[in-house]
Amino acid sequence: MALWATSCSSSEKLFLASSAATRRRMGSRRRDLVHVGMTDQAETETISIAYKEGDRERPKWADETPFSRLVEALISFKPFYSLLKLGARQVLIRFLPFFSFFFFFFRVCVFLMYMCIQNNGIQYSNSTAEKNNIPWREMTKEILESDVYKELNTIQNTSLQYPDYYLSPFHAYDEGNLSWLAAAEAEVATMSMTRRAIPYAPSNEEATQEMRGNWVQAIKQHHMKHSGNVTIQNIVDIGCSVGVSTRFLADEFPSAKVTGLDLSPYFLSVAQYKEKKRPPRKNPIRWIHAAGENTGLPSKSFDLVSFSYVFHECPERAIIALVNEAFRLLIPGGTLAITDQAPKSKILQELSPALFTLMKSTEPFLNEYYLTDLEERLREAGFVNMKTLLTDPRHMTMTATVPHQHV
């Protein structure tokens, strides 16, 4: 791992809490750590982990190349797409019995999935989950056989008009995010994605703490430096899914009022159901069924707007609309935080063509995301102080500020 942190100023270095537990956990990776004495409004010693960047601005497979266009054509061919979708779904559940496929398209599909599994390339898979003690099917069954369905009536905005892009199939679900199965599997898929990103962690819990801990520390550091002493009292997590990121924010900012907002009433039902199983909070999380591009929330009412793993599922026009809405919602000095796939990640830049094909079969707007100049879109919306850091080997966190003179 390249230790680029040694060439950065101390105020720019990503840090984790330097507790004794963290030191013990990371001891086996001591060669990859840089110990930094933070002097930027914090005099405590911290641990900085640097992740390796590739030598390009984005993966080569995301460019408009002949191969990329061929992949688009293959995916648009419905019989082939159906096989890819089936294959991706089976990879989510278990290793495929490849010998059972006899026809040409089946063989092609098998090859792609075989390459994917061999190279650890799929974003999240149940084979990964089960190998890492993530009880995918058990957790899914627990949700589907629970009383979660009762939450729908208290969550759903029946008058909501869904954006056209949101009705596309995502993640091998024909209904995309608008199904109970997708909602029931969302948390275990997130756990598996985290394990895929942090494969060296001793446990699932420690993988989550590294990934989410780096993310939230990047937010805190940016806000501390650029907000002008604005306290984070009101947070909205847009595209909150089943509330994994929302609950993490609520835990990290216990005095803040936190809102989780999503387009899927099924995801929100699971989020609300799971939150009810936890001990009551001083400030209960509020769940809202709305579009992130037009939330209906008051202007200048939030100190932090967060998007966690949302933008790679959106066309560029939606990304622009989401960024503009975030700017409207934030107070002067407020912080925007985006965490998602990192175009500069060395691991993602080195994905094989087979892996790229399988990824694209379940992520219809992946190319648009990688080709979007996100910092420029933020600048056009009016944000300043843009900062991008790799916060794990596959993902980045981008932070920005609404100018203090914003009227």
From TrEMBL:
SUPFAM superfamilies attached to this UniProt entry: S-adenosyl-L-methionine-dependent methyltransferases
Entry annotated with the keyword Transmembrane helix: yes
Keyword Glycoprotein: no
Keywords: Membrane, Transmembrane, Transmembrane helix
InterPro entries: Methyltransf_11, Methyltransf_Superfamily, SAM-dependent_MTases_sf
Gene Ontology molecular function: S-adenosylmethionine-dependent methyltransferase activity
Protein name (record): Methyltransferase type 11 domain-containing protein
Organism: Gossypium stocksii
Ranges annotated as spanning the membrane: 91-115
